[in-house]
Amino acid sequence: MPQLRLALAQVNPCVGDLSGNSRLVLEWCRRAADANADVVLLPEMALTGYPVEDLALRESFSTASRRALDALPGALADAGLGELLVVVGYLDADEVGPRNAAAIIHRGAVVDRYYKHHLPNYGVFDEFRYFHAGDDLPVIRYRGVDLGVVICEDIWQDGGPVAAYSEIGLDLMLCLNGSPYERAKDDVRGELVAARAREAGAPIAYVNLVGGQDELVFDGDSMVVDAAGVVLARAPQFVDHLLVLDLDLPGDRSPSDARPAGFEVRRTTIEGAPAVERAPCAGPCIAEPLSDEAEVWQALVTGLGDYVRKNGFRSVILGLSGGIDSAVVATLAVDALGADAVYGVSMPSKYSSEHSRHDADDLAERTGLHYRVEPITDMVAAFVEQLQLSGLAEENVQARCRGMALMSLSNRDGHLVLATGNKSELAVGYSTIYGDAVGGFAPIKDVPKTLVWRLARWRNEQAAKNGETPPIPPSSIEKPPSAELRPGQLDSDSLPDYTLLDDVLDDYVESDRGFADLVRAGFDPVVIENIVRMVDRAEYKRRQYPPGTKISLKAFGRDRRLPITNSWRERRP
């Protein structure tokens, strides 16, 4: 029975950095060779980064991608890596147009290519806009083993290349992925890959990207399952990792005459690559799954850290109000970048309570971030007196003075401003445009308020378990939330209880349920009317909010696209 040593390179490329990503491919192929691997599999569009969006339509970029791919086989051979069978994702372009492609490389040449068949056009995906679908079905015989290739969405759709490969017969299916993180998606992925392996009658090696790209974050979670759907190896989430595994495969099968309808079957045999005798590799890695809080926290840390680093920033700045949201964002920033790269500013007004000022001070001391206090009372007074402001206008001036202060310090010192609003507030418009909504990135934009509290408690518990100082002041977690823009103000003056609010938002925003559905779910019609009205009226604010890491099924922005000018309203049946 032929044995194949497989290496899955779970890597973090940067969109558009063709030279840097080429070096990344070479580095991880070197690691695979050092592990005595036969085959190394890299993720979907690892050479270009993913998603490339409208760069795919730019001829100069697709040409540069093809040139980078054309140079890769020679670079691998020159580095002494020519005997590896390398499968890597890239952007191709032919006479038809752009292609989401995979190249199979061996001994200084591209021996075959695969073009993605199913082009997703839902949620965050717009691939039907950019790419042309393939119909090819390459089968690579290597060391007596028949290998097939698919790309990401190809296994999410029934039928298609997986079913076609099952007709032909394979020993191993190689699946390249750029599958973004969502809460609990690792469970769905594992079940899907297992089902497709059973359908194909062959093991599947599934490699995924890791790292942040704008709103998206990729968690890795690469895996190998056998033909019965049993997990043989699984990589940890949110880290670069080389997953190495020895597979005993049937091999030396008779070529099939099957020609599945609608597919172009190509067979390539790589000659002169006999099986290699070697000691077995170490026992397979099956990473322990993360808890929900740990998974979300690591996704937010990864998304924030990569957004900062890949865009060339060295530091971030944010307002510290003493509340739970700014405390969580500050702690995320410290975890992602280190305390020395995080600058916090307390900006008290005449309405800021003493305990909130103390909580901001306490957070700075607990985390070790840079900290300063810049009172805004005189700034606010100048606007209020000259423009004769009162009520909501006066409240908003306070938020806008804080936003102006942060943006001015950003301009002076080169910091990236972090907005600290959460998904619940963003949903109902409970924020001040050009005030607390300013910034270049919003780390908890897709995190409901109730989850913000859960994450804060979890992070403090983890610190205590590790013998460290819990970073978030307990009083920031326990006290009733307030914007403190007028005497005695509480969020509950304007909003329902956050537990109720988040329940309604989950149904209305995440699931797109209408009024009648919400009533049947047990919500009070008066509450529904109030919340739905606030959500619908706040679309213009959301359009102007900074990007932030997606963790849910439906994040504001790429996932949920509603017109700003929109007279449709959900009403009582």
TrEMBL record:
<dbReference type="InterPro" id="IPR022310">
    <property type="entry name" value="NAD/GMP_synthase"/>
</dbReference>
<dbReference type="InterPro" id="IPR036526">
    <property type="entry name" value="C-N_Hydrolase_sf"/>
</dbReference>
<dbReference type="Pfam" id="PF00795">
    <property type="entry name" value="CN_hydrolase"/>
</dbReference>
<feature type="binding site">
    <location>
        <position position="396"/>
    </location>
    <ligand>
        <name>deamido-NAD(+)</name>
    </ligand>
</feature>
<feature type="region of interest" description="Disordered">
    <location>
        <begin position="463"/>
        <end position="494"/>
    </location>
</feature>
<feature type="binding site">
    <location>
        <begin position="319"/>
        <end position="326"/>
    </location>
    <ligand>
        <name>ATP</name>
    </ligand>
</feature>
<feature type="active site" description="Nucleophile; for glutaminase activity">
    <location>
        <position position="152"/>
    </location>
</feature>
<feature type="active site" description="For glutaminase activity">
    <location>
        <position position="116"/>
    </location>
</feature>
<comment type="similarity">
    <text>Belongs to the NAD synthetase family.</text>
</comment>
<dbReference type="Pfam" id="PF02540">
    <property type="entry name" value="NAD_synthase"/>
</dbReference>
<dbReference type="InterPro" id="IPR003010">
    <property type="entry name" value="C-N_Hydrolase"/>
</dbReference>
<feature type="domain" description="CN hydrolase">
    <location>
        <begin position="4"/>
        <end position="249"/>
    </location>
</feature>
<protein>
    <recommendedName>
        <fullName>Glutamine-dependent NAD(+) synthetase</fullName>
        <ecNumber>6.3.5.1</ecNumber>
    </recommendedName>
</protein>
<dbReference type="InterPro" id="IPR014729">
    <property type="entry name" value="Rossmann-like_a/b/a_fold"/>
</dbReference>
<dbReference type="InterPro" id="IPR003694">
    <property type="entry name" value="NAD_synthase"/>
</dbReference>
<feature type="binding site">
    <location>
        <position position="122"/>
    </location>
    <ligand>
        <name>L-glutamine</name>
    </ligand>
</feature>
<comment type="pathway">
    <text>Cofactor biosynthesis; NAD(+) biosynthesis; NAD(+) from deamido-NAD(+) (L-Gln route): step 1/1.</text>
</comment>
<dbReference type="GO" id="GO:0003952">
    <property type="term" value="F:NAD+ synthase (glutamine-hydrolyzing) activity"/>
</dbReference>
<feature type="binding site">
    <location>
        <position position="179"/>
    </location>
    <ligand>
        <name>L-glutamine</name>
    </ligand>
</feature>
<feature type="binding site">
    <location>
        <position position="185"/>
    </location>
    <ligand>
        <name>L-glutamine</name>
    </ligand>
</feature>
<keyword id="KW-0520">NAD</keyword>
<comment type="function">
    <text>Catalyzes the ATP-dependent amidation of deamido-NAD to form NAD. Uses L-glutamine as a nitrogen source.</text>
</comment>
<dbReference type="InterPro" id="IPR014445">
    <property type="entry name" value="Gln-dep_NAD_synthase"/>
</dbReference>
<keyword id="KW-0436">Ligase</keyword>
<feature type="binding site">
    <location>
        <position position="425"/>
    </location>
    <ligand>
        <name>deamido-NAD(+)</name>
    </ligand>
</feature>
<keyword id="KW-0067">ATP-binding</keyword>
<feature type="binding site">
    <location>
        <position position="541"/>
    </location>
    <ligand>
        <name>deamido-NAD(+)</name>
    </ligand>
</feature>
<feature type="binding site">
    <location>
        <position position="420"/>
    </location>
    <ligand>
        <name>ATP</name>
    </ligand>
</feature>
<keyword id="KW-0547">Nucleotide-binding</keyword>
<feature type="active site" description="Proton acceptor; for glutaminase activity">
    <location>
        <position position="44"/>
    </location>
</feature>
<comment type="similarity">
    <text>In the C-terminal section; belongs to the NAD synthetase family.</text>
</comment>
